[in-house]
Specification:
Blueprint (H helix, E strand, L loop, with lengths): L1 E5 L4 H14 L2 E5 L9 H7 L7 E5 L2 H7 L5 E4 L17 E4 L8 H6 L4 E2 L12 H15 L14
Parallel strand pairs: 1-2, 1-5, 2-3, 4-5, 4-6
Helix pairs in contact: 1-2, 1-5
Length: 159
């Protein structure tokens, strides 16, 4: 599974998402410009000591990612979609593409892929959810649909 963040702005969100990628084996793709330095203390703190587990890639354009993974299923998360993320059929190599916190994904990009746009349902008056929460919601649905492949389903014994 691939998590793509297009121009993320808040280091704590990206750090939380990096930690989710570390815990799930999802690949993290960051599209520049980033709204922070990769040396940012809030980014590092949010990712804790999981950074060595993150498979992270950097790009200068979302179109670089789309070209590199042109044969992979793609899902663009946007509040402007008319389909729910829960109705999509994810594969292990799906790209889950999220926009920046203040503006989402560019409308021109969404217009190129209208059938691949999905949203997280919420009440009408709510503008959006936090980016790291949104990534977690959709990523775990995609992982669930793929039977949590390569993830440990059971914890240690109670003492």
């Amino acid at each position: 599974m691939h998590i793509v963040l297009v121009e993320p702005e808040i280091p704590g969100n990206t750090g939380n998402i990096a930690r989710l990628c570390a815990a799930t084996g999802c690949h993290l793709h960051l599209v520049r410009p980033l709204g922070f330095s990769v040396e940012d203390k809030y980014l590092k703190r949010a990712g804790l000591d999981y950074w060595h587990l993150v498979d992270i890639h950097y790009y200068d354009s979302v179109y670089e990612v789309l070209e590199k993974y042109k044969d992979n299923p793609k899902y663009f998360l946007t509040t402007k979609a008319h389909s729910s993320y829960a109705d999509a059929q994810y594969t292990q190599d799906s790209l889950l593409i999220f926009g920046k916190e203040t503006a989402g994904l560019p409308e021109s990009l969404l217009a190129e892929y209208p059938e691949q746009c999905v949203r997280i349902p919420m009440i009408e008056d709510a503008r959006s959810l936090n980016l790291s929460n949104s990534v977690a919601i959709v990523a775990y649905e995609a992982l669930r649909q793929n039977n949590f492949v390569d993830l440990t389903l059971f914890g240690g014994e109670y003492k």
